[in-house]
Amino acid sequence: DAYVMRPETLPLSYWKFIVKSGPVPEPVLEAVKNNNRGNPIDLAKLMEFIKKHGGTGKELLDPHPHIVPCSVLHPGRQFCSETTLHTFITSFGKIFPLYFSLSLVPAIVFKFRRFLKSPFQVLLRAVASAIQSTTFLSSFPAIYISVVCFYRNFFSRFGDHRALYFVAGLFASLSILIETKSRRAELALYAMPRAADTLFFILKDRRWLVGLPFGEELLFAFSMGGLMYFQQCEPDTVSPLFSKIVNVFIPQPSSSSSSS
């Protein structure tokens, strides 16, 4: 929902990453947001974008449309199914190099001996892991745009509503089932702070909450304190990669020294 309706509540770099990897370009997102808020759409700017990408925009003649149609969401592509497939393929191509490096580099750095012993096996595991993670992340925007288009094709008479984009996000989140169980919790913990941060800004804008001086610094301190506590006392609950990185800089005391 924040991706479409409240982009200002997300970190700018994070939002730009979503837009770059997602199926809906920035001018269209702005039009959808303004239309849902009851503000007029900048038709001149939007029509320029649509024609640049091979569309006509003939359905968009009113600055206050009933709903922004699919021909505007994906100009130049007549069928929504084509847009879904294109979204998956382009997202896969953009994300795979990143995930491949994230899978291969730790395997080499932290398991160098195993890499020297069987480099092809390590490489194949990195490729398989990268394909699985990339499929998950590419499926998310593909499912998201398919839900949005499905609503426009069958329920557009009810008009647009911001809740649609929340529901589309819920359906798209089912793509996490593609990932391995061990990574699902890590991904959830990665997304949760973004959602909590967005919720805080929304509540703050509505004056339901107030800002706390040095709040970010305090939150960072408590978070690192909690991580280091679990790293020391409950190591099974901490990501293996995080534990290895921490142990490089803060070696764990040996059993002999701790007993003495």
Order of helices and strands: HHHHHHHHHHHHH
Mean pLDDT: 83
The oligomeric state is single chain
Structural class: mainly alpha
Count of helix runs: 13
Rounded to an integer, what's the Rg over CA atoms? Answer: 23 Å
The main β sheet shows up as: none
What proportion of the residues is helical, as a percent range?
55-70%
Low-confidence parts lasting 5 or more residues at pLDDT below 50? none
Approximate strand percentage: under 5%
Overall 3D form = globular
Number of strands: 0
Distance between the termini: 55 Å
What does this structure look like?
By secondary structure, the chain is mainly alpha-helical. 70% of the residues lie in helices and 0% in strands. It has 13 helices and no strands. The protein has helices at 2-5, 12-21, 26-36, 43-52, 70-73, 80-110, 112-117, 119-154, 163-172, 181-205, 215-233, 240-249, 255-259. Helix 6 runs antiparallel to helix 8 and helix 8 (119-154) packs antiparallel against helix 9 (163-172). The longest helix has 36 residues, at 119-154. The termini are far apart. The mean pLDDT is 83.
Quick structural overview:
The chain is mainly α and 260 residues long. Helix content is 70%, strand content 0%.
Structure characteristics:
260 residues, mainly alpha, 13 helices, 70% helix
What's the SSE blueprint?
Blueprint: H1 2-5, H2 12-21, H3 26-36, H4 43-52, H5 70-73, H6 80-110, H7 112-117, H8 119-154, H9 163-172, H10 181-205, H11 215-233, H12 240-249, H13 255-259
Helix pairs in contact: 6-8, 8-9
